[in-house]
Amino acid sequence: MDSLSQPGIERFEGKYEELSSYRNENNTGPVVRVYAIKALDDSKEWMREYGDAMPHTKYGRTVVFFFSDELDQEINLSPTDPYFSKAMQPYVIATYQKSPMGDVSFTDGYPK
User: Among 10, 36, 52, 80, which has the highest number of CB atoms less than 10 A from its own CB?
Assistant: First the structure.
């Protein structure tokens, strides 16, 4: 019952546009999820909450890249760093990462 009564992703409506997502097909080992999100609202508070609301699997990795709304091109994501073309890194305004042990990192720009 608790999971059905929690606020969903609809609370971020109008603040983002999903550009691309990647999830590996490994269901027996670490699941890697990578999301490319165009931020229509540049407030870091909702970005952190959005990252917290994204799916995460124990011992998996979830990475969410928030791009400037200036970026208007398709992004092809991969499961390994750097995850997308280096030419697009300057457009990253924030990065959310949840580690395999559930530790969260939220940084401005592309992580160094």
Answer: 36
**Average pLDDT value for residue range 32-37:** 95
In eight-state DSSP terms, residue 36 is E
Task: Say what the pLDDT of residue 107 is.
Answer: 96
38-68 pLDDT per residue, tens: 999 989 999 999 999 998 888 899 999 999 9
E strand or H helix at 106: strand 104-108
Handedness of CA 78, 83, 86, 91 (dihedral sign): positive
For the chain, the C-alpha Rg in angstroms (whole number) is 14
| 39 and 93 Cβ atoms separated by less than 8 Å | yes
